[in-house]
């Protein structure tokens, strides 16, 4: 478990993402002393995007945007059982930081506990469960 103060210190020291490469960790450890166990706990609380950097929720969203993002995803799942990650990404694009691609949005949804898969030609789809996704894909085709 990591103290909230450690996460806040890292977010202030590295607001544009954190690299856990050996060289970057040497620099980070000079600013914020961490044990190996705390580093792994940090990774568990963060999400890695396509550029290789790791982000906490507050590095990507302010509280209001995060709640709107999550509520929208949950609403669409409840109503439709499946939705395109592209729709959610486009709906919140102007209000997020560092989430540049659909892959980043899909990774963050997975980090939040949503089920996301890439399917051609529809791109990334978020769904309730695997059986629900197969039913929706069958209905589309």
What does the main sheet amount to?
3 strands, antiparallel
- Helices and strands, in N-to-C order? HHHEEHHEHHEEH
> Number of helix segments?
8
| Count of strand segments | 5
Q: Based on CA inertia axes, which overall geometry fits?
A: elongated
Distance between the termini: 46 Å
> Into which percent range does the helicity of residues fall?
55-70%
Computed Rg: 17 Å
Strand content: 5-15%
What does this structure look like?
It is a single chain. The chain is 57% helix and 12% strand. The chain is of the alpha+beta class. The radius of gyration is 17 Å and the shape is elongated. The mean pLDDT is 87.
How are the secondary structure elements laid out?
Layout (H helix, E strand, L loop, with lengths): L3 H10 L8 H10 L4 H10 L1 E2 L5 E2 L1 H4 L2 H18 L1 E3 H8 L9 H10 L3 E5 L3 E5 L2 H11 L1
Antiparallel strand pairs: 1-2, 3-5, 4-5
């Amino acid at each position: 478990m990591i103290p909230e103060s450690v996460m806040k210190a890292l977010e202030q020291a590295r607001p544009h993402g954190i690299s856990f490469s050996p060289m970057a960790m040497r620099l980070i450890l000079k600013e914020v002393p961490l044990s190996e166990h705390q580093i792994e706990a940090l990774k568990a609380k963060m999400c890695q995007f396509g550029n290789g950097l790791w982000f906490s929720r507050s590095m990507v969203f302010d509280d209001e945007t995060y709640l709107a993002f999550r509520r929208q995803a949950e609403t669409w799942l409840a109503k439709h059982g499946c939705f395109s990650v592209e729709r959610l990404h486009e709906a919140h694009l102007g209000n997020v930081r560092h989430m540049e691609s659909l892959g980043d949005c899909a990774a963050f949804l997975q980090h939040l506990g949503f089920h996301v898969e890439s399917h051609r030609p529809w791109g990334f789809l978020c769904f309730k469960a695997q059986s629900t996704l197969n039913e929706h894909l069958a209905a589309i085709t």
